[in-house]
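Entry 14. Ran structure prediction on the chain below.
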Amino acid sequence: MKHRAENHRSDRIGWLRAAVLGANDGIVSTASLVLGVAAAGADHRTLLLTSVSGLIAGAMSMAAGEFVSVHSQADTENADLARERAELKSDPAGEQRELAGIYVGRGLDRPLADQVAKQLMAHDAIGAHARDELGFSPTTAARPIQAALASAASFSVGAVLPIGVVLAVEPTNLIIWVSVTSLVFLAGLGAVSARAGGASMGKGAWRVAFWGAIAMAVTAGAGALFGAVA
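Output, C-alpha cells:
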C-alpha cells in the first residue's frame, strides 16, 4: 500500500514568522515615516534621505532584535536540555517513570506507557524527554542567525516598496500614492503569508492592511501636527 505524503506547514513557522514580521514592519514603518515627514512639509530630497535612512536603520534593528530575542530562547532551551541530561544521568529510573506518567496522561494504560518509555529512552533518552516533557521539536527550535537574516532581508524588501513610490510619484500626490500603494502592498503580504501558512487569504489580507492603515494614519497625523506647530 502506497503511503500518502502529508503536506504539513508547521515546519515553516520559524522563517515565516520572521519574514512576515520583517516585511510588514518594513512597509508600515517606512510608509509611516514618509507620510509623517511629508505631512510636516518636508521637501522631496528630505523624504528620500529619511526613507533610505529608515530602511538601513530598520533592517539593522530587526536583525539585532531577532538575533538577541531568538538567541535568548536558544539559551533557555539549552539550559533545560543540560538540566535534563543531568537528571537522566543521576536518576534514569525516575526519569523513565516520569516519561511513562506523561504517556499515561495522554491516554495509554500503565503497562504500555512503561514499555513505550523504556523503548524510547533506550533509543534516544534526551530526545524523548526534550520532545514529550519539555515540548521541544525541530520545527520550532530557535535559530538566531536564520531569524536575523530573514528579518533584515524581508524588512529591506518591504521598505523598498514605499521608497519606490517616493521615487516615481510627483511630490504633490505623494501622500495619497504612498498611502494607497502601501495598503495594497500590506494586503498582498497578508494574503501571501496566509496562503503559505494554510490560512484564509482574505482574513490575512484584511488584518494586515487594517493595522497598517491605523499605524500610517497615526504617524501622518503626528507629522501634520508637528508641522503646524514647529
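Residues 119 and 149 are 40 Å apart (CA to CA). Will compare against last week's run tomorrow.
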